[in-house]
């Protein structure tokens, strides 16, 4: 017969839970940490050692928030960011430290060592930073500056994720300009530790790259305002990054809309009018535009999987859409851009390899591509992708073009 496994009685379990509740009392914990910090003083090496050793004796897992509050502000923070009155506190904390980059880098090391030693503090630390950012209005300007520098360094070191920036989008902080001013200091220290590319990569990883405009109130959420604000503050790199993000976003939207208009079968003249309007609005050049139009045209159809059938299908499709391509190749550079897009497309989509020459000839006959552009592409403007195959395909046609040209002269 199976022996019954012993079970905990409900009653005993309840008592244990109640004991736990009573035991959550950070005052004892706070006393110990404050006392230790008062002894180590401004020697941050000693602070790190003290925190390392105390983790074995004190319940960091349970009182993580208390621990971080003390290290940053000297004592436990009440909601809103004021120090709780009834508790002992220490002068030896981030907010009372010197306001310079070197000191903040040293503090960042203290947090870094602590979290590397006690991995389970990672999430609590990130939550703490999010909370501190929400409390910004409760802090003095000097305290905010130190927190901004520290946060920039922590982001650069990868101690926290850029998702913490979402706290800065809080309406009350944004409305009063606190978020934008804080962001300036934060990004300066972050870029100083790394560079704009590293910053951009971290922002992209958590989808923050497209949300930076939210640092400003809705009526100021424009690329122009953002650009001016951060450029004036000495962060031109960040302005350029945001501008670039904006235009990438605008191009993606445009391509999506273009594909929808094509699948609805809108008249070409309406599509062309819409695109030209968007080019003006978003300041998009014809060279950039022809790339978008080409991609849209080529993705508006299900291609046959058989190589021998796809060429026929492509010619038929492009013949139909040639007026659209023609509308955005009024400059020689746009024609070359289109040729390179076709070359890349035929190379990247392997069953189009044999179709290249036929597509180019069709677009030449449809007056989309000029002989100058084709000859320039052939002699020196092509890219490496599949070049030997494509140049070989084009050889006869190019010779014919050259002869026709001589015949005219």
From TrEMBL:
Compositional bias ranges of the Polar residues kind: 1-12
Domain of life per record: Eukaryota
Record-linked Pfam families: HEAT_5MP1_2, W2
Keywords, comma-separated and alphabetical: Activator, Transcription, Transcription regulation, Translation regulation
GO CC terms: cytoplasm; membrane
Region Disordered, residue ranges: 1-25
Ranges for domain W2: 244-409
A single GO BP: regulation of translational initiation
Protein family per UniProt: Belongs to the BZW family.
Protein name: Basic leucine zipper and W2 domains 1a
Organism taxonomic ancestry: Eukaryota, Metazoa, Chordata, Craniata, Vertebrata
């Amino acid at each position: 017969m199976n022996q019954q496994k012993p079970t905990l009685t409900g009653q005993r379990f309840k008592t244990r839970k109640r004991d736990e509740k009573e035991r959550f009392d950070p005052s004892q914990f706070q006393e110990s940490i404050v006392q230790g910090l008062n002894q180590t003083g401004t020697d941050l090496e000693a602070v790190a050692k003290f925190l390392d050793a105390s983790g074995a004796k004190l319940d960091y897992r349970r009182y993580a928030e208390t621990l971080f509050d003390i290290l940053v502000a000297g004592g436990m923070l009440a909601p809103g960011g004021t120090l709780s009155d009834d508790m002992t506190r220490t002068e030896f904390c981030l907010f009372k430290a010197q306001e310079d980059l070197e000191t903040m880098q040293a503090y960042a090391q203290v947090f870094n060592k602590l979290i590397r030693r006690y991995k389970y503090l990672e999430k609590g630390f990130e939550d703490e930073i999010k909370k501190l950012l929400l409390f910004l209005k409760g802090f003095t300007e000097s305290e905010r500056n130190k927190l901004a520098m520290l946060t920039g360094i922590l982001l650069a070191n990868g101690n926290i994720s850029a998702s913490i920036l979402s706290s800065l989008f809080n309406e009350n902080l944004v409305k009063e300009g606190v978020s934008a001013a804080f962001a300036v200091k934060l990004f300066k220290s972050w870029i100083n530790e790394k560079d704009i590319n590293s910053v951009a990569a971290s922002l992209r990883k958590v989808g923050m790259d497209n949300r930076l405009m939210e640092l400003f109130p809705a009526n100021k959420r424009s690329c122009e305002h953002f650009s001016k604000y951060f450029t004036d503050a000495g962060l031109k790199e960040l302005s350029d990054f945001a501008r670039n993000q904006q235009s990438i976003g605008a191009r993606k939207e445009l391509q999506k809309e273009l594909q929808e208009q094509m699948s609805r079968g809108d008249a070409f003249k309406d599509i062309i009018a819409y695109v030209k309007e968007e080019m003006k609005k978003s300041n998009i050049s014809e060279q950039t535009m022809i790339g978008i139009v080409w991609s849209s045209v080529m993705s508006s159809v299900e291609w046959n999987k058989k190589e021998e059938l796809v060429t026929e299908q492509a010619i038929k499709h492009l013949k139909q859409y040639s007026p659209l391509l023609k509308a955005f190749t009024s400059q020689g550079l746009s024609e070359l851009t289109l040729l390179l897009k076709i070359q890349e497309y035929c190379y990247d989509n392997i069953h189009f390899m044999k179709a290249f020459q036929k597509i180019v000839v069709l677009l030449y006959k449809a007056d989309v591509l000029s002989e100058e552009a084709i000859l320039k592409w052939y002699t020196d403007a092509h890219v490496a992708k599949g070049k030997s195959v494509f140049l070989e395909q084009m050889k006869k046609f190019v010779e014919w073009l050259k002869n026709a040209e001589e015949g005219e002269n």
